[in-house]
Structure formats: structure tokens, C-alpha cells
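Batch manifest, entry 17 of 40.
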Amino acid sequence: MENEKVIVDMMRSGHMACPGCGVVIAMRLVLRALGKKTVAVIIPSCSSIIASTYPNTSLKVPAFHGTFESAAPTAAGISYVLKLQGKDDISVVAFAGDGGTFDIGLQALSGTVDRNEHYIYVCLDNEAYMNTGIQASSATPECAWTITTPSGRPFRKKNIMEIVAAHRIPYAATASIGYPQDLMDKVKKARNIQGTKFLHILTPCATGWRMAEGLTVKAAMLSVETRLFPLYEVFDGRRYVITYEPQGFPIDEYLQMQGRYGHLTQDQIANMQTQIEVEWENLRNKVKDCQC
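Output type: C-alpha cells
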């Protein structure tokens, strides 16, 4: 129809992602929302395998490959040079995994958000170092199996959103590949905000989560509907807005579909459910405080 908008993907087919990869879905949606006037920064991670296997690339936008820890300052530097050249209509987006965000790149990320550099940072969180063989990161949930935590990780997942929000940047948000319109709306909003913007996207990994490749999107949706990974925004580090009201399903189905949780006891599942309810109530209270 004449009034329908033409969807233009900024990624080609033929990339090297595993079947059912959540990261490639997230990258496709982010770049679709940003459009062709975009420069991408890629670091060693699953996104680097997707973006280019030399001498080819799946991206239709210019991309710069940096070092593991340098996604944030590289994007900030490119953005600054574009500003000096008077090219204010080009978005710069940094793609990094949870290892490059929660762990190895956290110091560099903190520096750029402290200075409120003008770029978009996208954390593609598959909850472990998947590209190097499924080792645990500080984004790996408590009790989850990895090759370095065969009995389950003994520590809780780091709350990266609260760390970023503490820097009081203009915009931070969670997003899910299970809710693509919400994700793309947040990317478009971030594109039009001056300063640092941070997007935390949960990207299920069929390989590392030990589940069937056709369950990726279902897992992403259940993470939201169980309130394990709520969808919300944080403005200026203080104003919280929930963008989707989840149904509050029990955590059981989400856990049962993943082999990495196959060893859990009923007590561990109950404890996880309690933690989810506490964190959800904390988030609701932050939203209420902003409305006073």
C-alpha cells in the first residue's frame, strides 16, 4: 500500500551468527531504527562475528572494530570528530556484550558517561562470555550453569542499569527482542537526545543457555512477562518509567526451557522467585517516587 512505510534493514543476510542468536536480532532492530546515517563501533564479541568475518561484512553502515575494553571511548571519539566536521545528523552506536560492558569495559564506559559524551551504547547481554566458550561474567545470573561455574554461579547478577543511572546520564533503558516495537521506539528516542544514551538488551543465546534454537524469542518474552527483566526507562538518573506492564508469570517455565538451570532445586527456584518480586517492587517504588 502507498501509505505503508518501507522497512530498510541495515544488515545483510549471510552473517556468521549461531542459529537462534538473540544478538543478531537485537543488532538488526537497533540498526533498522537508526537508519543509514549511522556509524557502528564493534568490539571482540559475538557482534564482531556477526558484523564481519574478514574480508566480508553483514553491515550496511560504516563500522569501526575496536579493542575489547574500548567500545565506549571509541564511539565517543568518533562522535566528537563528526561534530567537529559539522556532521550532526549521524548517529554513533557502540555494540558490546555483557563481558565488554559489565566487566572488561566498565571503567571506560564509566569515564564516557561521566563526561556525558554524545553516543548510544548498546549492551547485548547474553549473560556470559558466549563467543569464547560460555564462561561466566558478572552478568551471569545466580545458579546459572557455565563451563566455569558447572554447579551454578554462586553470585547474583550485577545491576548494570543502577550503575549507569548513578552517572545521571540523560537516558538509559532496558529493551527486549521479544518486544521489537518497544525496542526500536527507545532507539529512536535515544537518537534524538543529546549526551550519552545506554540501552541494556537481553539477548538469549540458544547455545549458551542450552535450549532449542527456536525458543530464543519466547525466552526473551518470558524474561519480561515473569518480571525478571522488566522494560523501563531512566531519565537523568532519577525519573523511572515502566514502558510495559508484565503479566507476572511464575519463573518456572522460563527456567525449565533452559538447560543451564536444569540442576536447580525447588528451594533455589523459590528463592529466585522471591528475588524477582522484591526487585519488581523496588522498581515500582522508584516509579512512584518520581510521580510525587
